[in-house]
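Thread: quick sanity check before group meeting

JM: Hey all, I'm pulling together slides for Thursday and realized we never actually wrote out the predicted structure for the chain we discussed last week. Dropping the sequence here so it's in one place. If anyone has concerns about the input, flag it before I start.
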Amino acid sequence: MARDARGGRPAGPRPRVQLAALVVAGAFLLIGVLGFIPGITTNYDELRFAGHHSDARLLGLFQVSVLHNAVHLLFGLAGLVLARSLAGARLFLAGGGAIYLVLWLYGLAIEAIDAEGGANILPVNDADNWLHLALGFGMIALGLLLSNRAGTGGRLDNPADRH
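JM (edit): ok, ran it. Output follows.
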């Protein structure tokens, strides 16, 4: 079987789950960078390091802070590293999706308890909450649905077939 130039994985197209992980990681990097660009981020002069008092909004909609943007950048970098392997891509998408569902629950809980309280260390608003919900389910779906046959040679292993 032909190998790539470094003798690593077999040459040929990457599995779809790895491509999806690369695209999602790239999107997080782009969002992280855009969060630091005045004009794309409205009220840029109100950008705070952390906390819910940052009035800066990415695309005029999503509340962001320096910490929030840095987390997007780190999450994107982690995704690029993890997307190098099949298992890493699955972990990034499914595990990252689970993290975003937790962030969605966090946003709902903060709103229900006290949106202006000290527990709200992340700038989240309704738009962020809906985005976190969509990202959570979308990333989990990509991680699970695109990898169901990857690495199995096109067939599922059936213990009854073993001799």
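AS: nice. Residues 152-158 have pLDDT under 50 and may be disordered. The chain has four helices and three strands.
JM: adding both to the slides.
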